[in-house]
Specification:
Blueprint (H helix, E strand, L loop, with lengths): L1 E5 L5 H16 L5 H11 L2 H7 L5 E8 L2 E9 L12 E9 L8 H15 L4 E7 L3 H9 L3 E9 L5 E10 L2
Parallel strand pairs: 4-5
Antiparallel strand pairs: 1-2, 2-3, 3-4, 5-7, 6-7
């Protein structure tokens, strides 16, 4: 059974735990261990996640599979991007699934939920940044209609940036 719930500040510790684990699973080899550990220790803390709940444009959601937390999303409504000529677009900042839940069609169900939520909030499309070497994610997004709109260097640490595609899906 799949259940998607809007997260609250009380879920910050769970989100941080899932974020750290899923980032290491999918991006752990994208840089040196030192750079990865530095990024994870700053980004996936309960304190850092809790602070993000202060921004009213940001929403977190948690997806459960058979009553186990399988992943989370972070979206930000009405967030423009220099490579996209639309206003009122949603930024999909994170869509993370733990590796143990791959193959359950959770990513597509979660994504459908996010698209519907974005549309209900009068958004014209959705955009994201994806690491150029994350072929699994790029294939997933391309298959559902995203187009590469630009480039972005994701700063992982003081000494390391990873090249990302900016991808955009315009709603029809």
């Amino acid at each position: 059974m799949i259940k998607i719930v809007k997260a609250s500040i009380e879920d910050s510790e769970l989100i941080a735990k899932i974020g750290k684990k899923s980032f290491l699973e999918s991006h752990g080899n994208s840089a040196s261990t030192e750079d990865i550990n530095s990024f994870v220790s700053k980004t996936y803390t309960t304190k850092h996640i809790s602070k993000e709940f202060e921004n009213t444009k940001i929403q977190y959601h948690i997806i459960y599979f058979n009553d186990k937390a399988a992943g989370f999303s972070k979206i930000e409504f009405s967030t423009p991007n220099k490579d996209i000529n639309e206003l009122n677009v949603t930024k999909l900042d994170r869509l993370y699934l733990l590796k143990e839940f791959y193959g359950q069609k959770l990513g597509s169900k979660f994504f459908d939920f996010i698209i519907q939520l974005s549309k209900k909030n009068n958004q014209k499309g959705i955009w994201l940044a994806v690491w150029e070497e994350n072929e699994r994610a790029i294939h997933f997004y391309t298959k559902i209609g995203f187009k590469i709109a630009g480039k972005y260097n994701f700063k992982l640490s003081e000494t390391r940036s990873n090249p990302n595609h900016i991808m955009f899906l315009k709603y029809s």
